[in-house]
Specification:
The complex is a heterodimer of chains A (403) and B (252). Chain A has 14 helices and 12 strands. Chain A is α+β, with helices and mostly antiparallel strands and 403 residues long. In chain A, the strands form 2 sheets. In chain A, strands 1, 2, 3, 6, 7, 8, 9, 10, 11 and 12 form a 10-stranded mixed β-sheet that branches. Chain A has a two-stranded antiparallel ribbon with strand order 4-5. In chain A, strand 2 and strand 3 (110-115) form a beta hairpin. In chain A, helix 2 (15-48) runs parallel beside helix 12 (314-355), helix 2 packs antiparallel against helix 13 (367-392) and helix 10 (268-295) runs antiparallel to helix 12. Chain B is α/β, with parallel strands linked by helices and 252 residues long. Chain B has one domain: 3-Layer(aba) Sandwich (Rossmann fold), CATH 3.40.50. Chain B is 34% helix and 22% strand. Chain B is built from 9 helices and 9 strands. The chains are: A alpha+beta (403), B alpha/beta (252). Chains A and B meet through helix 1, helix 11 and helix 14 of A and helix 2, helix 3 and helix 4 of B.
């Protein structure tokens, strides 16, 4: 097909401007696709991450803060919940598992979370999958100075079974605030893709009784992670009523997914601006194809006249320009996928490091079809402008070089 | 304004020392080119119309070679562009290889040009992004279809077997014009139009290139209509016509 040869030769002949335009398209397309997928995936994954729990009970505060602190291990704890309150929720007939956690220490920036570890192992973080310690490790024993590291924390800190470490006080790492206790790693938690991967688990009493902690609150917990009984669909409403409406001491954050979804709703305008900006970038990049081809039309005038003199029809030279424009878009989108992969891999790593939530960079998303198709179509569309110029090229005058 | 009697070409040839344009021996072939009452005018910037081409009759026999003498600005390039179907005539008839060119829509003229004509220009007009071989092959793709063996043979015929993959800028100007000769013959044309093909070459190169062009056209049974103002070039032709005796824009 003559038109494809013409397009190929022209792209090679104008290789620098072809590549510059293609890279502009690649950056724009890669940006658009990654903004889109990271937003969608983050939204989907974050609102789906519950760690296997339905609710969190904690000190009076915002529900969002409770969820971020207890499920995502971000933010400060809003306060403590007394041993008596822990007991009450744990024995509530609507509650299947009530897992108290205590926070306040870290090891090199990775949070130590005290809990009743045996009970954690009863929880399915996602249907059909329990939290478990990877062999050959073993679960920590309550009351001992033992710890189980989440998989991400273990990898980042280089922790292995048998390693010993001193906890540091506070949720952020300050090397002057070392505790005297020495903990030993007995196992690594199998990867869950939840925030549990980036904390180090120790016994509940370990945090409560850590040297230097206020002995008056030695029986308090930071929060209780609640798994409701599936048999009573009204259990969440009942506890919500009990703690949030009638009580004024504690906050019952339920359901966890909806609380995160509310957060995403609040920042949706930010998503929209980001998406809008990436659309603009695509428009600018496509305009660069238009500019580069249109600017070269004067030098192409003779080339087009020669093609016409050889017998190429007006529609052929018109088509060749449109196809060339679309082809630059297509080449750009091929490179765009590399850029997309790079952005998403980095973004997912950052998201994982900051939150423990795993975003799958290879997950298929319709935007991976829609964006390339749309950009190639847009490139073909802008190609029409120079193509019209090619269509109108006067052969007789084009054949005579300007002197 | 069709003049009776011999055609303008024959008249022109009669005025030179050369004998009348010889008809090929039997079987008598129709002329490859038969122009009648051709008119073309342009609009000047002042808004007037200026008649540029007014050729009453011009014929060229199949396989014939004719040198057409004409000075710059005499309308000879427009005349060639009319024959090539690049420029549309205002009136008259152009029978190219038996096909009435003036009645064809542009797309059909493009197609006829690709299959029937070869062109050689003063400025070579090679495509810079294409190798020698690709220049010839591209011309084929609009006409008879890509034939790599024939393209290679043509380039061999013009002495460029060792330059098939060279780009025009990597060739001397003499070599570039030889590529253009090979390209003009790519679709086994019935007629080759050459517009000052040696205008950019020195005398020795010009003579060599002209000889090559004439031989190659003869071998491919293509008629040759060559326009030039160079006496040395025209002297190589048995038959020469004066364009100003064919073309009478002033008194039409």
């Amino acid at each position: 097909m003559a038109i494809l040869i013409i397009v190929y030769k022209s792209m090679r002949f104008h290789v620098v401007s072809t590549l510059v335009s293609a890279v502009a398209i690649a950056l724009a397309g890669g940006l658009l696709m990654s903004v889109w997928t990271v937003q969608e995936e983050a939204n989907r994954v974050f609102t789906g991450v519950t760690g296997g729990f339905d609710a969190v009970l904690g000190a009076r505060s915002s529900k969002l803060q409770l969820v971020l602190n207890s499920i995502f291990h971000l933010e400060d704890s809003p306060g403590n919940i007394s041993a008596a309150d822990v007991d009450v929720i744990r024995h509530n007939p609507n509650v299947e598992i009530g897992l108290p956690i205590a926070v306040g220490d870290n090891y090199k920036g990775y949070r130590l979370v005290g809990t009743l570890f045996d009970e954690l192992l009863r929880v399915e973080y996602t249907p059909g999958h329990h939290y478990e310690v990877e062999p050959p490790g073993r679960p920590l024993i309550d009351g001992q100075y033992e710890a189980v590291a989440g998989s991400f924390a273990a990898r980042e800190l280089g922790l292995k079974i048998g390693d010993k470490f001193h906890p540091f006080h506070g949720l952020t790492y300050d090397e002057t605030k070392q505790h005297a206790e020495t903990y030993v790693i007995t196992g690594i938690l199998a990867p869950t893709g939840t925030p549990s991967d980036r904390v180090i688990w120790i016994p509940l009493s370990g945090v409560q009784k850590m040297s230097g902690h206020d002995p008056r609150v030695a029986t308090d917990a930071s929060a209780v992670l609640v798994k409701l009984k599936a048999s009573n669909p009204m259990s969440g409403f009942q506890l919500d009523l009990l703690y949030n409406r009638r009580g004024n001491k504690l906050t019952f954050a339920w359901p966890i997914g909806a609380i995160l979804a509310k957060l995403f709703d609040k920042i949706a305008w930010f998503d929209r601006i980001l998406t809008f900006v990436s659309y603009l970038v695509v428009v600018v990049a496509t305009a660069s194809i238009l500019a580069s081809i249109y600017n070269s039309m004067n030098e192409r005038r003779r080339e087009i006249a020669i093609l016409r003199a050889l017998g190429a029809g007006r529609t052929t030279v018109f088509g060749a320009i449109v196809v060339e424009s679309a082809a630059i878009g297509a080449v750009g989108m091929v490179i765009g996928f590399v850029i997309y992969a790079a952005i998403v891999v980095v973004a997912s790593h950052i998201i994982r490091a900051q939150t423990g939530v795993v975003i799958d960079p290879a997950k298929f998303h319709p935007v991976m079809i829609v964006a390339p198709a749309g950009i190639v179509a847009l490139a073909a569309l802008v190609g029409i402008f120079p193509a019209v110029k090619a269509y109108r090229t006067d052969v007789a005058s084009g054949l005579t070089p300007l002197s | 304004m069709n003049l009776p009697g011999p055609s303008a070409t024959e008249e022109a040839c009669a005025s030179s020392s050369a004998p009348l344009l010889e008809r090929p021996p039997a079987p008598r072939l129709p002329p490859v080119l038969d122009v009648n009452g051709l008119r073309k005018s342009y609009r000047t910037p002042d808004g007037d119309t200026k008649l540029v081409v007014a050729v009453d009759r011009f014929t060229l026999a199949a396989g014939a070679q004719l040198g057409l003498k004409g000075s710059s600005g005499s309308g000879k390039t427009t005349f060639l562009n009319l024959i090539a179907g690049i420029v549309k005539s205002d009136a008259g008839s152009i029978l190219l290889n038996g096909v009435e060119l003036t009645e064809l829509p542009e797309s059909k003229r493009d197609r006829l040009r690709a299959t029937t004509l070869g062109c050689v220009y003063q400025s070579f007009n090679l495509l810079q992004g294409y190798t020698c071989l690709d220049n010839v092959l591209l011309a084929m793709s609009f006409g008879a279809g890509r034939d790599r063996a024939f393209a290679t043979a043509l380039l061999g015929r013009v002495g460029l077997s060792h330059r098939l993959d060279y780009y025009p800028r990597q060739l001397s100007i003499g070599q570039q014009q030889r590529v253009a000769v090979a390209r003009a013959l790519a679709n086994r044309p019935k007629l080759v139009l050459a517009d000052e093909p040696t205008g950019n070459l020195d005398a020795t190169l010009a003579a060599e290139t002209l000889a090559l062009l004439r031989e190659a056209c003869a071998e491919q049974n293509a008629a040759l209509l060559l326009v030039s103002h160079d006496r040395d070039i025209l002297a190589q032709f048995e038959h020469v016509a004066e364009f100003k005796q064919l073309n009478h824009p002033a008194n039409s």
